[in-house]
Design a protein that fits this description.
InterPro entries: MBL_Glyoxalase_II (IPR051453), Metallo-B-lactamas (IPR001279), RibonucZ/Hydroxyglut_hydro (IPR036866). This protein is an alpha/beta fold. The chain is built from 5 helices and 14 strands. About 3% of the residues have low confidence.
């Protein structure tokens, strides 16, 4: 399997492409701010044809470029229904006083939006990706999990990072829900590779052993990585 990515825009949000191999169809995960140019270069490099865009959640740093990416290739976007409204109204995810940060920015839904369901298995581009609803960072946060040889890869969005977890202090965030979602995720095998929405990759085993926010999966003062 081919997995590649790059940090996009000022938020340095990881945009990923996933394909069975070079020269085949692929899916795109979380095309954020200014992701179009970097994504186009990655697709040319590996001779890939996107068939869908998958979104781990609706925060603007993860969905900024979804409409142009989908529109240029006539492919659908997949998002959990709890976050769908953020595609066209990203300000709902921020306190009112933060609205000026995105003043004048106009986002819209792609023409074809499909809704993700917990436990669904998406068969796309010759891949099978299991959708797991993991609220806490947002109400509609999900992860995508796919097998790779003898292990699994987890696209974690802003649920789990190397050494940290997602923030829960924005509208739609819920710390208790985040802890429940993390507890479910920690049932995955230690060797599971975690590809987060920001920062470097890690593994479930490494985070279980070293991440201070996962000790007893108990509440801690909030980390701040990601929107």
């Amino acid at each position: 399997m081919l997995v590649a990515g790059f940090p996009a825009g000022s938020f340095q949000t990881n945009c990923y492409i996933v394909a069975p191999a070079a020269g085949e169809e692929c899916v795109v995960i979380d095309p954020g701010q200014d992701a179009v140019e970097g994504l186009d270069a990655l697709l040319r490099e590996h001779r890939l044809k996107p068939v869908a865009v998958l979104l781990t959640h609706g925060h603007i740093d993860h969905v900024w470029s979804v409409a142009p990416v989908c529109g240029a290739r006539d492919v659908p976007a997949w998002i959990h229904p709890e976050d769908r409204d953020l595609l066209s109204d990203p300000g709902k995810a921020f306190p009112p006083q933060a609205g000026q940060l995105f003043g004048g920015l106009k986002l819209s839904e792609p023409d074809d939006v499909r809704e993700l369901a917990d436990g669904a298995v998406l068969s796309l581009a010759g891949l099978e990706l299991t959708v797991e609803h993991r609220p806490g960072h947002t109400r509609g946060s999900v992860t995508f999990r796919t097998p790779v040889e003898d292990t699994q890869v987890l696209f974690a969005g802003d649920l789990l990072f190397a050494g940290s977890i997602g923030r829960t202090d924005l509208p739609g965030g819920d710390h208790a829900a985040m802890l429940r979602s993390l507890a479910k995720t920690l049932t995955l095998p230690d060797e599971t590779t975690v590809l987060p929405g920001h920062g470097p990759q890690t593994t479930i085993g490494r985070e279980r052993a070293t991440n201070p926010f996962l000790r007893d999966v108990a509440p801690h003062a909030g980390p701040t990585r990601g929107l």
